[in-house]
Amino acid sequence: MFAGRRWSGFENSEESLFWTDDAGVEHYPSLEDFKDVLRLHLHHNFNLSYSEKSFSRLWSLPLTKESLPADENEIYLHQSLRTMWDLVQDPEYVMIALLQHLDVFPELYGTCGPMYVVEEVKPLDLPGLLEMTSYSAWAGRARLALATLDLIEEFDTMFDTPLHLCDLKPEHFGLSEHQRMKFNDVDNVYLKPIVDRSVGDGSACSRHSDCDFFDCKGQCNMLKKKCLGGVTNNNLQVVCEKVFLGSSFGLKSFGTGMLASRHGEKILKPLLQACANPSGSKDGTRLSADRDHLVRLRSVLREIVSFDERLSEDNL
């Protein structure tokens, strides 16, 4: 699947690195100066540290060629740095390239100019009306839900601070050809310090939702009328609300979520509702779901899967 830059809200601009003077002479940074700027870019915009290994993950191609003379190699280097700089303006590219060894996002296959090619991950299917009545189909989705919980727990623990999925939809989760659950839309995935800075940037507000960054919830200081403080919710809360529960449209036994089913009305649905809205808020304010929500939810999902396996054995 091809991808490319869609949005850039970063402070570092190409003009500050590559520019043409009044005489028409093009100016480029040295390789060491470029790496210094890249180091600042990764730290400021992603809270990620720089190393030579991270440079090679962001740009796996050679910067010079032995077959070229010195003047042509200089041009080749300059064009390589231009292309690399364009690529690292794309948050999705940066996260996929730097974290590909963790196998949580689609694999990066390669680049072609400012475009890049990534693994195609099959989005999760949401249940149709008939599937909501089938216990076996529901148990199959419970297995996918367990894999989803494992993945978001990885996002919480792979760094010193959690990795937030700020634009979260059911179709953003998917399975690779090796049946590995991955998150396949990485445009708005950031470490907590970056999200905290975004939702608590001091901008004017009159309600908490004014401070939200997509699904990452902020808080409005009602006395100062400013967005202050850090993100108030977490990935687990959003997954419970938007992926597992979905919308019910006011119908008791209906829902659009992955785990929507009449079989879960008594036990699973109340757990999901508590996880989706831990504070019981009547508006859109959301707090983080805690470890107890995760443990209880995992336990019930495993029971659903285990019971389905016993039913299958009895039918042999």
Key terms for this structure?
three-stranded antiparallel beta sheet; 316 residues; alpha+beta; 9 helices; 10% strand; globular
Distance between the termini: 42 Å
The coarse silhouette is: globular
Helical region count?
9
Task: Using the CA coordinates, give the radius of gyration.
Answer: 23 Å
Q: How much helix, percentage-wise, in residues? A: 25-40%
Percentage beta strand: 5-15%
Main sheet record = 3 strands, antiparallel
Structural class: alpha+beta
Strand ordering within the main sheet:
1-5-4
Mean pLDDT: 90
SSE topology string: EEEHHHHEEEHEEEEHEEHHH
Topology, pairings included?
Layout: E1 2-3, E2 19-20, E3 26-27, H1 31-46, H2 52-58, H3 70-87, H4 91-98, E4 108-112, E5 115-118, E6 122-123, H5 135-157, E7 163-165, E8 173-175, E9 181-183, E10 189-191, H6 192-199, E11 220-221, E12 226-227, H7 235-245, H8 268-276, H9 291-314
Antiparallel strand pairs: 1-5, 2-3, 4-5, 6-8, 7-10, 8-9, 11-12
Helix pairs in contact: 5-9, 7-8, 8-9
Give a written overview of the molecule.
This protein has 316 residues and is of the alpha+beta class. 39% of the residues lie in helices and 10% in strands. It has nine helices and twelve strands. The strands form five sheets. Strands 1-5-4 form a three-stranded antiparallel beta sheet, covered by helices on one side. Strands 6-8-9 form a three-stranded antiparallel beta sheet, covered by helices on one side. It has a two-stranded antiparallel sheet with strand order 2-3. A hairpin with a 2-residue loop joins strand 4 (108-112) and strand 5. Helix 5 packs antiparallel against helix 9, helix 7 (235-245) packs across helix 8 and helix 8 packs antiparallel against helix 9 (291-314). The radius of gyration is 23 Å and the shape is globular.
